[in-house]
Amino acid sequence: MSRLKSLALVLAAGASALALAGTVQAQTLEETLALAYNSNPTLQAERARLRSTDEGRIQAQAGRLPTVSASASITRSHSEGESFSSITNTTNSFESDATPKNFGLSASQPIYRGGRIDGAIDQATAVVMAGRESLRATEQTVLIQAVTTFMDVRRDGNVVEIRQNNVEVLAQQLRAAQDRFEVGEITRTDVSQAEARLSLAQAQLSAAQAQLAASRAAYERVTGQPAASLSAPPALPALPDNLADAAEYAFDNSPQLLAARYSEEASQHAIRIARGALRPEVSLTASASSARDSSFSGDVRDSASIMGQVSVPIFTGGLNRSRIRAAVAQEEQARHQVREARRQVTEAVTNAWYGYVTSLAVIESSRQAVVANEIALDGVQQEAFVGIRTTLDVLNAEQELLESRLTFVTAERDSFVAGYLLLQAMGLASAEQLGLNVDIYDAAAADSRESRFPNLDLTPWD
């Protein structure tokens, strides 16, 4: 029981050191995730990119509506001169002013464009949906980075504490060896071995401190705030019982795979658009104009016209056929990209699953190894005291205990991160699915025009 208690104290030492560093309350994993969700620049940039993509659908829907334009002009003219009359043999002066005014209004309404307008709208909608899935993928990536850096800081803090404790133990071991050497119980070789182990431990401590600093820097990059004191993480969210269930769920919900499917759909609509160029176009144009004071004051001339126009492509030098072939090739490319995305999802789920299962096994085995190595170290130290074991035997036993402790804290970190990587591969690591206490970014509501005009997504006078 005492050794189990000792193990718990050692493993908690890094977290305790961080928690006692000041009076600041320890930061939880949920708070870390909220920081990343609200402030990470990569995620903010992806949201802005999606808002730009949303405008493509509005632009495509504008093709259904008429275009209306108005014009107005006013001219001020002044003329003066002299005219000679041969009849009266006199010269007459003249002067005149005119202010003609012209007003016009025209409107053009597409009637039929070979299905290109509907194709463009459907294509833009698919692109928007692919963009939303890409945003979801980026969101999950950022949150997983937050989880990873959170656990890295905690792991590296524990590693520093364990290695610091090892340096202190080896320093005591060296002092004891020097005392025993002075009374002739051991040789100079034993002292040199203790000195070498202490020097190595000090170097490893410096490396661990550098790694902790790097992990803290990564944490600050992801969350925007330094990692001062981090509390123990909560239990993992519920995970599937087997790999098959995880993969099946991922095939229906992975944002990476869904984005590829929407991109394939967009490429299919691009073929419709290209084929529409082979069909005729029908449009209707109406115009009205009014002229005032064009010839003399009070002169009024009004006119109005309406015209229907049909345009049929006959020969374009092979341009339209080439565009169709290009669109078909792009659709084939998108189809293969869906297959590749499915394989990548399968790989990600498999790696995360076995990483999680393996780390759980390592946790259990390393926990048992720590207890066994503590017992072994006690025995070796007692045997060395009576001269049965050498100083090197003691140093080796201490090293084995150290390695088992480091393996344990690393496996704890790895299992937790692997669990979240599995959630990410399945498409279950978004802020909403993790239940974060944040204002969830609504990609659909972010488009204010969509909220104001759900049918057209635009104002008629845009």
Automatic annotation (TrEMBL):
Protein name per its UniProtKB record: Type I secretion outer membrane protein, TolC family
PANTHER family, A to Z: OUTER MEMBRANE EFFLUX PROTEIN, OUTER MEMBRANE PROTEIN TOLC
Lineage: Bacteria, Pseudomonadati, Pseudomonadota, Alphaproteobacteria, Maricaulales
Entry GO MF terms: efflux transmembrane transporter activity; porin activity
Signal peptide: 1-21
NCBIfam families documented for this protein: type_I_sec_TolC
Coiled-coil boundaries: 160-211, 324-351
Region Disordered: start-end pairs: 69-97
UniProt KW Transport keyword: yes
